[in-house]
Amino acid sequence: MNATTDATPNSSALSSPAHHAPRLLSGLYATGVPATLAEHLRHYGPSAPGTRTSPMSVVEAVEAAGLTGRGGAGFPTARKLRAVAERGGRAVVVVNAMESEPASRKDEFLLTVAPHLVLDGAVLAARTVSADTVHLCLPRTRAAQFEQLSAALDERRRARLDPVRLRLHALPHTYVSSESTSLVRWLNGGPARPQGSPPHTHERGVARRPTLVSNTETFAHLALIARYGPDWFQQAGTPDEPGTLLVTVSGAVAAPGVLETAFGTPLDVILDRAGGRTESLQALLLGGFGGTWLSAEHLQVPLARCNLAPLGAAPGAGVLIALPRAACGLSETARMLAYLAANGARQCGPCRFGLPAVAEDFAALAAGRADPALLSRLLRRVGLLPDRGACRHPDGAAQLAASALRAFADDVDRHLAQGACAAAHRPPRIPVPPAVLPETWR
Amino acid sequence: MTTTLALTGSPLWYASRAGGTLALVLLTATVVLGIASGGRVVPRRIGRFEIGLLHRNLSLLTLVFLGMHVVTAVLDPFVRLSWAVSVVPFGASYRPLWLGLGTAALDLLLAVLVTSALRHRLGVRSWKAVHWLAYAAWPLALFHSAGTGTDTRLPLQLWLYAACLATVIAAVWWRLAKAGPGHVAGRLTAAVAATAVPVVLTAFLAAGPLQPGWSQRAALTPVVLIGGGR
Amino acid sequence: MNPANRAKTLRIDRIACTGQGLCGELLPELIDLDEWGYPIVKDRSVPDHLRAHARRAAAACPLLALHLDADRT
């Protein structure tokens, strides 16, 4: 695993001493070696609120900083904190480290190098929303990480650092088990499948208590904002989207891996930072398997919501896959769709019928077995996936399929007219987990 | 002998018999429609929702005739039943077991009625759980009719029972044939019940109500009945 | 304002829904059905003149998956 850092703040802030303040992967963590609690404390000092943000409350600091969720949806974190805090009563905090996007490694990487930064943030959030328990949810497939984090939790327990209970869990790893309601349902003794709302998680979640579920990385940013303040946080990124985010770059780049970049960084700059392209590129997949294909002409677009929205894309969970010209985008997409279809929870109409049908149509298109009605049928079925399930899984799959039909429009015509292209017969370029049904939801 | 006795009864007795028989027919229709809508039948001339509406309306009509059946039976001076008998099963002085089956069926249907009225409050799970009791109420009603029914020995009445039985059994088998994999225990239970009910009913009719002296035997307590002595 | 008089919106419990399609038969003005019988809500907000129809559709759902929510505003 390779990590690159980029915490370069705006030039206007160069004079500020805060410029030297480390971010998620800088300084200590750039080495890629796990930080012990002692190292972490030496580096950052204790995380007691008020060290730097006094007398501002954590919620106010987070709000002023403009921190948004880093799990993909990008919801303002302060609003989430406030919603849980306002419910009153004992709340629960859940750290979502499920990272179900097959191409994403950022949560795993962050928890490996900076476990205590994440835990600091989670404990701070717990104090902010008056929670007495923090649940840390990991995929069952990451046994080594589970061991490492158990050790980290033991360190904290021995140091009597936290006023709240910290509990580690290993959940079944499927694409939809990272959905926040899946975590809540599993923690309540049920299957790790999305629940749908109402009631919302922030109203009634784990043990029927108000529950805050956030992505691993979000908690790490929160810990830093509490230490260094919102002004420091805003030195990186754009005025609309301040701060940095972790990005997992893979595909046709020389040094694939996790790197930290400021919002607003052009996509090709990020690729350069990941060692640069190894081949001529055809397209970029932004946001992962539930993300958006961008054709190569959009390589200079900044990684920011407002710039990506016109292209139908969003930063998502920071997955960036570079597809070389020698690959067949339709075949790659067909394999991803087959995986997404197999990984649905099969609870709602779109995941029971719509998504499998779309995946099948797309496979026929990629293989050059299209019947004359295929394209119109596929477009209709893709259009009926979004907004009709208990979670956003079908929405993401529809985004992938629709953007592939746009980005690879010429290939679509060719596949329809002349059958599969030569590239479709070559080995696939994007690793996709096998499209098999999950063994267990519990 | 039973028939001649009944023909000399009061108007209330006639009303009770008619109400009971109609309730059985309506309950049969309700059950068949319920099975049909559960099995996602696609009717050609009417909408699917009309099956559901018909199911609901016929079930209410069933309860109306059931009410008439019970009230007239209690008011009838011939058998002298207390009001408690209409809700507490197996406590009657007259044919306790066979009357009790009818009372049990009525109780189950009342539970189904109440939970259906409150289904939006109860949630689909509890509602459906209770609704399944309707499947138990139907054979109870059938055995009650055969065991207590004044008219059981009339050929026309026997044909009616046979028709009710045949439609429900056919509906169950249709539903089982349509069902996909899964719910193995449920499907097995349904198949066994659909086979057992006609067999047991035929055997019972042949050994009990259709034999001479049934009215004396039916009046005995359940314990003696199970012994089956002549 | 009395909750009964407030504007109503349709909500479908997507997990409970099994695509029986009765809502689409009873409320075609607001609900289409896809090729598998699952509802496609064309408009969530229920106009006053369709309120009785919407209530009937909600009552007819065998899975109790169609809900008529009173608007919070």
TrEMBL record, chain A:
Residues in NADH-ubiquinone oxidoreductase 51kDa subunit iron-sulphur binding domain copies: 333-415
One family name in Pfam for this protein: Complex1_51K
Cofactor entry? FMN; [4Fe-4S] cluster
* UniProt keyword annotation of Signal present: no
Q: Which SUPFAM superfamilies does the annotation name?
A: Nqo1 FMN-binding domain-like, Nqo1 middle domain-like, Nqo1C-terminal domain-like
Claim: Phosphoprotein is one of the keywords in the record: no
The UniProt keywords, alphabetically, are: 4Fe-4S, Flavoprotein, FMN, Iron, Iron-sulfur, Metal-binding, Ubiquinone
Q: Which residues form the NADH-ubiquinone oxidoreductase 51kDa subunit FMN-binding domain?
A: 62-222
Top-level lineage group: Bacteria
One biological process GO term for this chain? cellular respiration
Q: Which GO terms describe its molecular function?
A: 4 iron, 4 sulfur cluster binding; metal ion binding; NADH dehydrogenase activity
- Into which family does the record put it? Belongs to the complex I 51 kDa subunit family.
This protein is called what?
NADH:ubiquinone oxidoreductase subunit F (NADH-binding)
The protein's organism comes out as Streptomyces nymphaeiformis
Q: What is the lineage of its organism?
A: Bacteria, Bacillati, Actinomycetota, Actinomycetes, Kitasatosporales
UniProtKB/TrEMBL annotation, chain B:
Name any GO cellular component annotation. Answer: membrane
Looking up Pfam families in the UniProt record yields: Ferric_reduct (PF01794)
- Give yes or no: UniProt keyword Transmembrane: yes
Signal peptide range in chain numbering? none
Coiled-coil annotated spans? none
Subcellular localization? Membrane
Looking at the UniProt entry, the stretches that span the membrane are 12-36, 57-75, 95-117, 129-146, 158-176, 188-207
Keyword Manganese on entry: no
Topology in the lipid bilayer: Multi-pass membrane protein
Domain named Ferric oxidoreductase: residues = 20-141
Keywords in alphabetical order, please: Membrane, Transmembrane, Transmembrane helix
Report the protein name in the record.
Sulfoxide reductase heme-binding subunit YedZ
From TrEMBL, chain C:
Question: What name does this protein carry?
Answer: Ferredoxin
